[in-house]
Amino acid sequence: MQTELSNALGVEHAVFGFTPFPAVAAAITRAGGFGVLGAVRYTAPGELARDLDWMQEHTDGLPYGLDVVMPAKKVEAPDKQTLTEADVEAMIPDEHRRFVTEILDKYHVPQLAEGEASGWRITGWMEQVARTQLDVAFDYPIKLLANALGSPPPDVVRRAHDHGILVAALAGSPRHARHHKAAGIDIVVAQGYEAGGHTGEIATMVLTPEVVAAVDPLPVLAAGGIGTGEQIAAGLALGAQGVWLGSLWLTTEEAELHSRRLTAKLLAAGPGDTVRSRALTGKPARQLRTDWTDAWDDPSGPGPLPMPLQGLLVAEANSRIQRHEVEPLLGTPVGQIVGRMTSERSVQAVFDDLTRGFERAIDRINRIAGRSQR
């Protein structure tokens, strides 16, 4: 599964694996892919530095990358001054706070124990937090910087290039992809409707070749609904130079979900058990459908707030739900490929399966091409 892009980066397989778990990212890199560590959950620079140190020790000198979240549009004060987290918190309406309390009370979700941390707050959606993450990341030999919400600011792109780091950005439409190209982005990730997390409205099979044509000669990675070697072959056949996989790693043995009930829900879910909802961050993100997403998507409720207000509003509630494993509300971002995630396997076992599937697909196509030439 080699392409011009994978060869340029020095990786065996053109499989880029996004994950919030350092152990998974390192295992992806060691298996011959390109591990990309998600930074959004890191609220303190020291925490990110600690895990990048760990990545350095466990990637055998092979390349890896970092994914940050820098929204194309940010919440600003009327005087255009940068807002603090407290400033943003103050913008959350009381009606929405009451709504969160009502949901938690309805399902008898316990409070966190006294002194127990409320878990990671989604402050990484705020640009100033992502910038502190980059101050740490540029001290490490990362080979790729990806931004999940559009093109990073021009100064960030310049900084990355000054460090010899390629910059990737996710696109949900050809228009977004053309904007990335104009902004100096090196790699465009064509993320289809099927994908987990923030995603647009165009399916991967339609989106990928349109993005390839829109940004030629930039390399494109296909994302969304890809979890088998045959699907990787399809993405490459559509013109992509690799694939971007995220959901598939959630049920690997190296993942750190810290919830057996959540893992069980993922293993039991089918492709129709996800929903594209703004309940988690304020922007449409595909995730497991739960009573929590249903409540936020109900027209009778107040509706989600824009990013980053929604993420700050629900952070403690999500921590309580996850800590106490309240099953009806328990969910996670995941794509429609969840239906293929039926057992816990090591990252290496996943790669072995991807490789075999890719070889089957290529053999099948070669047989068809051979017959057509007779």
Automatic annotation (TrEMBL):
Q: Which UniProt keywords apply?
A: Flavoprotein, FMN, Monooxygenase, Oxidoreductase
GO molecular function terms noted in the UniProt entry = nitronate monooxygenase activity
Q: Which SUPFAM superfamilies match?
A: Inosine monophosphate dehydrogenase (IMPDH)
Has keyword Flavoprotein? yes
One Pfam family, short name: NMO
Keyword Flavoprotein included in the entry's annotation: yes
The name this protein carries in UniProt is: Monooxygenase
